[in-house]
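Next comes this protein:
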Amino acid sequence: MEVDFKEKEGKTDLFSPVKREKPPETDENGFQFYAIQPAGTRVATLDDFHVQGKRKMGMKFLIFGQYWKVYQVYVVTGGLTAAKLEKFVKEGRVFVWGEN
């Protein structure tokens, strides 16, 4: 059996655990949210939601709630439009995972 070693700064790292993001909490109505901003997320732009003019269907994103002060989990669907997101994006309340 072959083992795939990871090289980190000149050291072989065979046993380092993979860090996984804590799953979101679910409220009594079934809505998922994070109480604090998850690691690896950043403020989104409208460009984050499409590639070559096509929506990134199924992509998860967060909107920081104005009243409840939690990061609510949403998913890109066919009904999502730039017009629906624009206000939240301009206010800096939409977050996505990854780098620019």
